[in-house]
Design a protein that fits this description.
Bound molecules: CU-O-CU linkage
Structural class: alpha+beta
CATH architecture of the largest domain: Orthogonal Bundle
Strand content: 15-25%
Number of domains: 2
CATH class of the largest domain: Mainly Alpha
Number of helices: 15
Largest sheet: 4 strands, antiparallel
Oligomer: single chain
Number of strands: 14
Order of helices and strands: EHHHHHHHEEHHEEHEHEEHEEEHEHEHE
Radius of gyration: 22 Å
Shape: globular
């Protein structure tokens, strides 16, 4: 029998603040916490702290604690992101079922950026309820903005977040060897560029929701860091699991959205990779990625796989919509992307435009039809830093002296800084390479070209940071929390590529 993972907001609206599925969840979280050893390292594998440690646990040295084989195993910045988290959730769901002695209990999902229903962007009331004594779903380890019960993104423009979700769902491939502008992330076994690469979904909604549910910000400074804001603590927040159920669901939404959207089943480095998790009865369970690509294998389906309505129009509008930006087919068997130009060591917090000189694609030695048939990418590589806003957008050819944020039509893409600290550490599993994001700018280039604002030999890049307006009192905390050695967020290289 297939269970249904339900939309937590639909249940809340239908049943009131404490729908049955959350009442049960709250009880199970309490039982898992009862297994926790109070201090020191996590004890029982079925305990709450151990479960969170599977995702990440900070060692006394500041990096990931891997002294237990199950700890600090989370997969980010590659095509393993979605399947690893799918298994992590499925194993967790079995544990909750076991504590509840209810094989039908299923993790609900939190569709936090639903372009058709902004009301879902608030944490469901059960996660905020302070009237229930020791409510296991409530915690102060969240941003004040999230705890206020309003939209988790505060004053950030919801239209931007909706566009980012839609851009992710419009990505036409799950993965590529070169990691360019994919839904699911770069192939880890065949990296043509330094650094691992997140898929678009992993940036937004995934990373952004983490940062903003966890942390408050004053500009580019984190104040009041909370659980969801770091790999090492994210799993401690009960909302983590509902957030990831939604990402897992969006994977299925993406697959359903277009016949050309498929999983990279032909690649054994993906298909045959296995991960092992604690199991409530048999000790451990090992799954192979190839087996879990259909959620039914794990016993569940989702209440809804409806895509945002702008992506799922009435049939007569369909033709128009599938020719929107980003939907150009990727050339089969094409050459790896070629770098046309790049700028090094770029500050992403500066208002200065960054000039990039490019070798025009039609110059001697390159294919003559490059400029017309090619896809163009903007790659922001090796992003590191100790303090950053939750989200940065990159813009092309913003007129001198103008605010890029006033030019959404020139935005090439946006990157979340969730995991920045973890991936900036040189002694960490992520090797200090930082975060990398690549955006498909083919449509933007063609649009600029059509209005005479594209120059094959030169591009100006600008960045703009997106932080919500800080909660009251945060300005003072900023002074206290700001580390003396905090450095701005920088990209090792910003490159323009064509393929
Ligand atoms: Cu492994 Cu949402 O993080």
């Amino acid at each position: 029998m297939t269970r249904t993972r339900m939309d937590v907001w639909t249940r809340t609206r239908a049943e009131g603040d404490w729908p049955a599925v959350l009442k049960d969840y709250e009880v199970a979280v309490g039982r898992m916490r009862d297994l926790d050893t109070p201090g020191g390292k996590p004890g029982s594998p079925l305990g709450w702290r151990f479960q969170a440690a599977i995702h990440g646990l900070r060692s006394q040295f500041g990096g990931p604690d891997t002294s237990n084989e199950f700890w600090s195993n989370c997969q980010h910045g590659s095509w393993y992101f979605l399947p690893w988290h799918r298994m992590y959730l499925a194993a967790f769901e079995l544990i909750v079922q076991d504590f509840l002695e209810d094989e039908d209990w299923s993790l609900p999902y939190w569709y936090s950026i639903d372009p058709d229903d902004v009301g879902k962007s608030s944490l469901p009331p059960a996660f905020l309820d302070m009237t229930l004594a020791d409510n296991n779903l409530q915690t102060d380890e969240r941003s004040e903005i999230a705890r206020s019960g309003g939209p988790f993104y505060g004053s950030i423009d919801p239209d931007l977040l909706n566009s980012l979700l839609i851009e992710a769902l419009n990505a036409d491939t799950f993965s590529t060897p070169t990691g360019t502008a994919t839904f699911g992330g770069g192939e880890r076994s065949d990296l043509n560029f330094s650094g691992d690469e997140a898929g678009l979904l992993e940036d937004v909604p995934h990373g952004l929701v983490h940062s903003l549910v966890g942390n408050d910000y004053v500009g580019n400074v984190v104040v009041n860091p909370g659980w969801m804001g770091s790999f090492y603590t994210a799993g401690l927040d009960p909302i983590f699991w509902l957030h990831h159920a939604n990402l897992d669901r969006l994977w299925q939404v993406w697959l359903t959205l277009d016949d050309s959207h498929t999983n990279p089943t032909g690649d054994s480095a993906f298909f045959d990779t296995e991960f092992t998790f604690p199991h409530p009865e048999q000790g451990t369970i090992t799954w192979r990625i190839g087996d879990v690509l259909d959620p039914e294998f794990l016993g569940y389906e989702y209440e809804s796989l409806a895509a945002p309505s702008v992506l799922a129009p009435e049939p007569q509008d369909r033709e128009r919509s599938i020719t929107t930006e980003g939907a150009m087919p990727r050339p089969e068997g094409s050459m790896p992307p070629r770098v046309l130009g790049a700028a090094s060591d770029v500050s992403m917090g500066s208002a200065e435009r960054v000039p990039v000189e490019m070798t025009p694609p039609s110059s001697p030695g390159s294919a003559p039809d490059d400029a017309t048939g090619s896809r163009a990418y903007l790659r922001v590589e090796g992003i590191t830093g100790t303090t950053a806003a939750p989200l940065y957008s990159v813009y092309i050819n913003v007129p001198e002296g103008e605010d890029p944020a006033e030019h959404p039509e020139l935005r090439a893409g946006s990157v979340s800084t969730f995991g920045l600290e973890e991936s900036s550490r040189t002694d960490d599993a992520h090797d200090g390479g930082g975060l990398t994001a690549t955006f498909d700018i083919t449509a933007l280039r063609d649009r600029l070209g059509a209005t005479g604002r594209w120059d094959d030999g030169h591009m100006d890049i600008s960045f703009s940071a997106h932080s919500p307006a800080p909660p009251a009192g945060a300005e003072e905390r900023r002074e206290r929390d700001l580390q003396a050695d905090a450095t701005d967020v920088r990209a090792r290289r910003v490159a323009v590529l064509v393929e």
